[in-house]
């Protein structure tokens, strides 16, 4: 079932650097607040290139790094490419290089997708089991991650939910091996209901090459099979779009929010 779209909450910033800083501040604040009432914090990391600077700031900026109790954070991934973990295209590799290898996080807190497994369905099933064990939930229940980070591709995909791909309408499975025609390859991805069940969703979009798609996604008609990112609609939590000016150049955003150009 596709829920009616809520009015998007947008943080408009000058550029990719400002976007990474703004997202880092919100995330660190959310971690501190959440850990007042629970022992551990679970976060789903996104891949691609956009979050690299955010990860580097969290690990390297003294004002941020020291505010994060790294041993209480558990890291998961929203999607993974079918490559080994030391491959330059691996989402795990990017996050490890930029952040996880630089901070005191116990290896047991790092829950990577084993997407290099030649059996893609098996890799997806094993990751679903890992999530179920972590959250102590049964098959059929949805996990509630504290935070999900997402990006958007120029074709409107998010995580590895690509336009027209089989995983788009999935309502029951947590993780799928999703066939992506344009890459002639499977990707392993969490499904939309998992993302939508999170406490906080931060969606980062940067760069003018995404401006047309962003306008279609945020200001035009709903077409969630064409623009899978439109399927991201929090069920109970909060969702914030972080946009830099080049990405948002076709949108008209003022203090009251978004209107169309
Ligand atoms: C991936 C992602 C993907 C990404 C977008 C944006 O594995 O590619 O998780 O959904 O977030 O494609 O990627 P960029 O940040 O590189 O533009």
Order of helices and strands: EHEHHEEHHEEEHEHEEE
Q: What is the helical fraction, as a range of percent?
A: 25-40%
Mean pLDDT across every amino acid position: 95
Strand elements, count: 11
Largest sheet report:
6 strands, parallel
Strand content is 15-25%
Q: What best-fitting shape do the alpha-carbon axes yield?
A: globular
User: How large is the count of helical segments?
Assistant: 7
- Low-confidence region ranges: none
Task: Provide a descriptive summary of the structure in words.
It is a single chain. Helix 1 packs across helix 2 (about 50-60). A 6-stranded parallel beta sheet has the order 1-9-8-5-2-3, covered by helices on one side. With about 260 residues, it is of the alpha/beta class. The longest helix is centred in the N-terminal third of the chain and has 19 residues, at about 15-35. The model has no long low-confidence stretch (mean pLDDT about 95). It contains 7 helices and 11 strands. It has helices spanning about 15-35, 50-60, 60-65, 90-100, 120-135, 190-195, 210-220; strands at about 10-15, 40-45, 75, 80, 145-150, 175-180, 185-190, 200-205, 240-245, 250-255, 255-260. It is globular, with a radius of gyration of 17 Å. The relative contact order is 0.18. A hairpin with a 2-residue loop joins strand 10 (about 250-255) and strand 11 (about 255-260). The chain binds 6-phosphogluconic acid. 6-phosphogluconic acid binds near residues 48, 50 and 157.
